[in-house]
Design a protein that fits this description.
single chain; alpha+beta; Aminopeptidase; 2 domains; eleven-stranded mixed sheet; five-stranded antiparallel sheet; 24% strand; disordered N terminus
Length: 408
């Protein structure tokens, strides 16, 4: 299987199933699991909650069952689990063993190259993340009635000790929320600052009320883009996963596949994956489908949480003026306003989002590096990168389309 971002580094000894299961700590049993299927969905969801669609058992199981993760793609499940004395799940961490850096969106290619030049192996490494999903959120999952500090500390210790025992180069926690970031910082992890562009609902009555907060020039631009779509006689319909026909699922997957083959060349989510989550968590799968003469011509794939809409994928059969902006941004904003969602995260990168109301928003990741020398070098790199990133975010805020000062 070719990898679009460089060759895969393999070490079969290091990627064998972990031998660290059945550790005991503070009255808990800690395990490293090779599949989420070993945990009943109700127990996992009681710990992770169902508000974040990507942390649901149904989402992660669909990835595993439909060939989206595993040996073929270099995402080997090594989920961490903490059980109490009654054998109830009280904590969990979605973790994977990686022999590449594809699908992570926190780019460490230069780190891997530096290791290679020094004659060291950067792969395999451990990654705490949701595969192919650059959405910030909790990564240390603890049952709401359990002792969060004790369980979180035990899971972090298990992740780090397990990485050391397996002779991994590093352990990476990607797109952590503020609480997990601070906890990992206190545990000695190196913190990396990133930036995305998020929209926030400030109590807008409707889309026009949102636009009224823009400067006149920016407001005119958005209206013109929406008008272009209308003038091309394109209609946008909203379809949730459990409402979608199989033809709609096939076509939306086709849009996703086409975009990856045009730009990145490695679509990992299968049609059967979308079919499964449409059945198991279809209320959280949202399609914005563009139709011309009742024929699907483009679409955006989103997921809905309790208070957040997540934009994930987009595709089209042919280009239409401004249709990308309409399907990927404006429809999502209208959806959030209509359904009372507070945040719209449209995906990674894209400074063009600023003029459409998505402001620069900090993201974080946390990193443990086994090699002392490289840990120091990466710490120095991150210190300079963080300073530059803060300046970048400050500069981007000056491009805000809003008439009054608004920050993310």
């Amino acid at each position: 299987m070719p990898y679009p971002y460089g060759s895969r580094h393999r070490n079969d000894e290091a990627v064998r199933p972990s031998s660290l299961n059945l550790r005991y700590n503070a009255g808990m049993r800690l395990e490293i699991l090779n599949s989420i299927d070993t945990i009943p969905a109700a127990r996992w969801n009681a710990v992770s909650g169902t508000g974040n669609p990507f942390l649901r058992h149904e989402f992660m199981l669909a990835l595993e069952r439909n060939g989206c993760v595993g040996e073929q793609h270099g995402w080997l499940p090594r989920h961490l689990a903490a059980f109490d004395n009654n054998n109830d799940l009280v904590g969990a961490v979605p973790m994977y063993l990686k022999d590449n850096s594809y699908g992570e969106f926190v780019f460490d290619w230069s780190w891997a190259e530096a290791y290679q030049r020094a004659g060291l192996s950067y792969y395999p490494k451990a990654v705490v993340a949701i595969p192919y999903t650059p959405t910030p959120g909790p990564r240390i999952l603890v049952h709401p009635q359990a002792d969060r500090d004790t369980i979180a500390s035990a899971l972090i210790e298990l992740a780090r000790n397990g990485s050391q025992s397996e002779n991994l180069s590093s352990l990476h926690w990607l797109f952590t929320d503020k609480d997990d970031t601070e906890r990992l910082r206190q545990q000695g992890f190196l913190i990396r600052l990133g930036c995305q562009f998020h929209w926030k609902n400030r109590g807008y009555r409707d889309f026009e009320a949102f636009l009224s907060s823009f400067s006149a020039r920016k407001r005119k631009k958005v209206r013109r883009e929406r008008r272009y779509v209308q003038e091309q006689h394109i209609d946008i319909i909203t379809v949730h996963g459990h409402e979608a026909t199989d033809l709609q699922l096939q076509t939306m997957h086709d849009f996703y596949r086409i975009t990856f083959e045009k730009k990145w060349g490695h679509p990992t989510l299968t049609l059967d994956f979308f079919r499964e989550i449409a059945q198991t968590m279809g209320e959280q799968l949202v399609f914005f489908i563009a139709e011309k003469q009742q024929t699907m011509v483009a679409g955006a794939i989103c997921f809905r949480g309790n208070d957040t809409l997540y934009g994930r994928h987009w595709g089209c059969y042919e280009d239409y003026h401004s249709l990308h902006f309409e399907a990927c941004y404006y429809q999502g904003i209208e959806y959030c306003i209509k359904h009372g969602l507070n945040v719209f995260q449209p995906g990674a990168q894209g400074e063009h989002k600023i003029s459409r109301g998505f402001l620069p928003t900090p993201t974080w990741s946390a990193h443990w590096i086994a090699d002392d020398r490289f840990r120091g070098l990466i710490a120095d790199f991150l210190e300079h990168e963080t300073s530059a990133m803060n300046e970048y975010i400050e500069e981007l805020n000056q491009r805000s389309p809003f008439r009054e000062v608004v920050t993310a």
